[in-house]
Amino acid sequence: MKASEMLKVKGDILYTVTPDTTIINAVNVMEEKDIGSLVVMEAGEVAGMLTFREVIKAIHSNGGSLGAGTVRQYMVKNPLTVSPDTEVNEIRRAMLEKHVRYLPVVNNKILLGVISFYDVAKAVLDAQSFENQMLKAYIRDWPAEQEG
After folding, report:
1. 148: in domain
2. pTM score of the predicted model
3. Does residue 146 fall inside a structural domain?
4. Number of domains in the chain
5. How far is the C-alpha of 96 from the C-alpha of 104, rounded, in Å?
6. Percent of the chain, pLDDT > 70?
7. Any idea what DSSP says for residue 51?
8. How many helices (H) does the chain have, and how many strands (E)?
9. What is the pLDDT of residue 8?
10. What does the pLDDT look like over 86-114, one tens digit per residue?
């Protein structure tokens, strides 16, 4: 399964902010939309990612509060991205090796969506379930041996 196929199943709703958005406003969007990440866009391109990990760092660096800073101060700059043709196993490997839970899917600098660790886990489980069903159907329909 490719990133583009996972995005089709997931849907095409994207939540983005600019680097100059206040961290408080960004966190409010994340809470209201029940999402774990926001893509940071600047001049029409992906400039960064803000995830709950960066929010925790912001709280820590501000002595227990979010503070009045902007997303630019806390975002991951120039995040790892994947193309629509990237296979799920490559996405899974990249997430594990780079310790990221969200990967923007970009085609020619255009943001198409975000693949989360949850999306990868669901895609793998769905593929394994389908394969399991096919194998069970094959075994059920196994031809009887001819006696001769």
Report:
1. no
2. 0.82
3. no
4. 1
5. 15
6. 90
7. E
8. 6, 6
9. 87
10. 999 999 999 999 999 999 999 999 999 99
